[in-house]
Design goal:
The protein has 362 residues and is an alpha/beta fold. It has twelve helices and eleven strands. The strands form four sheets. Strands 1-9-8-5 form a four-stranded mixed sheet, with helices on both faces. A three-stranded parallel sheet has the order 3-2-4, with helices on one face. It is globular. Bound molecules: pyridoxal-5'-phosphate.
């Protein structure tokens, strides 16, 4: 089977060199040298400051919400992976969904503005598929309503907008370094904070809330630390990131050329680079989407309905039945993500293109 994604497995000798150092030091976790090295290299590579590495992207969201004081309600996108909203519910925050832009599939600033209530404490847009949201629109909205903007930037590794990292927008951006992501640490994540105080608070929060010493309990916290073993993997993956991005871009271009005029794709934000983290296509209808899924499956190809269902239709998350989010519901019903990972062979890319075409004509 050709899966929708396949983790990068770095060179074993390289991993072993790092692991030997870890074993010699017997320093396996607790902000060790490899976590600090990876933090510095990522800050440099991504062009950001105040980066905190975490055990995964879900904890990154939870800690970002907590560090910015959310405990009631936040306005967010329904067209995302469930973690954006479930991390809120887990913290006792009610996600209030607003609809997305029909062309980019990012949260719409005007719809988000209309969804704000007296209890809203933040706006949480998602750079879905790595496609930046209308960050300027959200900056204006955040300032006008005095609300922090926290981006779920889990898909946005290495994307820049108008020449600077998209992670520099907003009060915080969270990343996922899960094994299936284009850059990974097996499990892992990160948070970039604009504000130094929030960064310092979150640093304590990921380590049980401890301050300068183990006896100094500065704030309630959680254990969200990245281990040295995970950082070692990340350092190895980071060494090959340019080749990874290059091959992903080739595959994405091949899909676009091969399916031009057959399927639609979300419009990319003007001025933004593309990281080819995902290969989304939009079919004409849910029926056609299911036919394409079947046609691919019969060829041994697994495509995924990312992101389905639209979260505003999930009963656990519903806060306002009138907030229908029809654009998100429609997009979720007919969006598919095709396989994309560096060692996907050219023949397989062609097979997938043919499978999509066959499904569209069925
Ligand atoms: C948009 C989004 N948010 C959050 C997450 C959660 O990240 P993690 O799997 O690292 O916990 C993911 C992971 O796939 C994601 O796609």
């Amino acid at each position: 089977m050709i899966q929708v994604t396949k983790p990068i497995t770095p060179n074993l000798d390289q991993v072993q060199k790092y692991l030997e150092k870890v074993h010699t030091r017997a320093w396996l976790t607790n902000n060790g040298p490899l976590v600090r090295e990876l933090t510095e290299r990522l800050e440099d590579y991504l062009g950001v400051r105040n980066l905190i590495l975490t055990a995964n992207g879900t904890l990154a969201l939870q800690v970002a919400y907590k560090a910015l004081g959310l405990d009631k309600e936040a306005v967010t996108s329904p067209f995302t992976f469930v973690a954006t909203a479930s991390a809120m519910k887990w913290q006792g925050i009610t996600p209030r969904f607003a609809d997305i832009e029909a062309d980019t599939l990012g949260l719409c600033p005007e719809k988000a503005a209309a969804a704000i209530t007296g209890a809203t404490q933040a706006i949480v847009p998602v750079h879905v598929y790595g496609n930046p949201c209308d960050v300027e629109g959200f900056e204006r909205l955040g300032q006008a309503r005095k609300l922090p903007v926290i981006y779920d930037a889990s898909h946005t590794f290495s994307v820049s907008l108008k020449g600077r990292s998209v992670l520099n927008w907003g009060d915080a951006s969270t990343l996922s370094f899960h094994a299936t992501k284009l850059f990974h640490t097996v499990e892992g994540g990160g948070i970039v904070f604009k504000d130094d105080d929030a960064y310092q608070r979150a640093h304590k929060m990921i380590n049980f809330g401890l301050g300068g010493s183990p006896d100094d309990i500065a704030t309630p916290g959680i254990n969200a630390k990245m281990s040295e073993i995970h950082a070692a993997y990340g350092l190895c993956v980071l060494d090959s990131i340019e080749q990874v991005l290059e091959r992903r871009a080739e595959i994405l271009n091949a899909y676009r050329e091969g399916m031009n005029g057959v399927v639609k794709i979300p419009k990319w934000r003007e001025g933004a680079t593309q990281n080819a983290a995902y290969a989304p296509i939009l079919l004409e209808s849910e029926q056609q989407c299911l036919k394409v899924l079947d046609a691919l499956k019969s060829e041994g190809v697994v495509a995924r309905r990312y992101f389905y269902p639209s979260l505003n239709t999930v009963s656990e998350f519903q806060v306002d039945l009138k907030a229908g989010c029809p654009i998100s519901v429609d997009a979720a019903s007919r969006a598919l993500c095709l396989p994309i990972y560096p060692d996907l062979a050219d023949e397989d890319v062609q097979k997938i293109i043919e499978g999509v075409k066959a499904g569209c004509m069925a």
